[in-house]
């Protein structure tokens, strides 16, 4: 679950969030303006390979459906606007 906090609180307590393990949604005037996802280690080779494999599968799916990367990005942006 993502915790939502104001940008002022994020700035004042950034050390706490850097050391934490919970993703944070940073909001300005109630609207999410970004996300902070703390990491504590370098990903291992298996994780990197899994990420590359997932990216390749996504490319194939997009090509099969005739969807460009830009169209996908625009759809995500519209979803964010609709959720705000």
Task: Characterize this entry briefly.
By secondary structure, this protein is an alpha+beta fold.
Structure description:
There is one protein chain. By secondary structure, the protein is of the alpha+beta class. The protein has two domains: 40 residues, YefM-like fold (3-Layer(aba) Sandwich), CATH 3.40.1620; 43 residues. 57% of the residues lie in helices and 18% in strands. It is built from four helices and three strands, in the order E-H-H-E-E-H-H. Strands 1-2-3 form a three-stranded mixed beta sheet. The chain is flat. The two termini are 17 Å apart.
Q: Categorize the overall geometry.
A: flat
What average pLDDT do the residues reach?
A: 91
Number of helices: 4
Strand fraction:
15-25%
Which structural class should the secondary elements be placed in?
alpha+beta
Low-confidence stretches: none
Count every beta strand, where a strand is a DSSP E run of 2 or more residues: 3
Strand order of the biggest β-sheet: 1-2-3
Distance between the termini: 17 Å
- Give the H and E element order: EHHEEHH
From the alpha carbons, calculate the radius of gyration and give it in angstroms. 17 Å
Count of all domains: 2
Largest sheet: 3 strands, mixed
**Range of helix content:** 55-70%
List the helices and strands and how they pair.
Layout: E1 3-6, H1 7-12, H2 14-19, E2 24-28, E3 31-36, H3 45-65, H4 69-83
Parallel strand pairs: 1-2
Antiparallel strand pairs: 2-3
